[in-house]
Every structure is written in C-alpha cells, then in structure tokens.
C-alpha cells in the first residue's frame, strides 16, 4: 500500500512538474509577445509623430499660399486704383478736348484697355488659385485627420492587447508560483515520510 501511495505521489509530482514546464514556456512566449507589442507601440507612436509633423508642414505651406494670395490681392487693388485714376484722367481729357480725338487720349484709352485686360486676367488667376488652395487644404486636412485617427485607433488597440496579455502573464506567473509551492510542499511531505 505504501508503494502504491509513493507511485501515486510520484505521478502527481511528474504531472505538476510538466504543468510547471508548460506554464514556464507560456510565460516565455508571452514575454516575447509583450516585447514585440511594445516595439510595435513605439513604432506607431513614431509614425503618428511623423504624420503630425507632415500635417504641420502642410499647414505652413497653406499659410505661405495665403500670403501669396494676399500679395496677389494687393497687386490687383493697385491695378484697380491705376485703372480708376486713368479713367478719371480720360474723362477729364474728354471734357477738355470735347470732340477732339487726340493722340494722347488714344494712348490712354489703349492703356486703360490693357490694364482692364490684365485686371481681368489677374481676377481669373486669383479665382483659380483660391479654388486650388481650398481643394488642397481640404484634401490634406481630411487625409491627415483620417491618418491620425487610424494611427490612434491602432495604438489604442495595441495598448489594449498589451494590457490584456500583461494581465494574463501575471495570472500565469501566479499559477506557476502556486504549482511550485505545491511541489515544494509535496517534496517536504515525501522527505518527512523518509522517501
């Protein structure tokens, strides 16, 4: 009967040792997964920072475009002022010369016509530039916001997975510790029995 009990205790010890080995292997695997997830989290944070820097660069570019638009508007206003001045001068000459169609008046009319054409061209360029700027700004803002949201979601998911695995790892460590404690207790009992 004592031999049967010894065999039973020996089988139990072997089973517990096997479980402890399996638990240790799982813990090592979890540690490797945790390391990989931590590396992934760091890489995602770097990528998120890079995207934010790109977004800031694009914002700076839009500010530069806005400054260029302001210069274009000022240039257009100067043309308007010149045009208004020339028109006023033209009217004065018309009143002075009445029906006399002088060469000077003709030159000023040609200048007014050219300035009007240039002003029209500038207005068209300004409208096209505003459309292009608005389209690029809206498209870049949407892309940057979408990319940031995707990275934030991926980062949150990775951190959640890391937290869950860490909890599982702690549970396995406790389970392994309990098994080792049971093994020590059984060994102590066996030594007490003189085996």
UniProtKB/TrEMBL annotation:
Listed InterPro entries: CCDC89-like (IPR043450)
Coiled coil (UniProt feature): 27-168
Keyword annotations from UniProtKB, A to Z: Coiled coil
Domain of life (superkingdom): Eukaryota
Identification of the protein by name: Coiled-coil domain-containing protein 89
Organism, scientific name: Hemibagrus guttatus
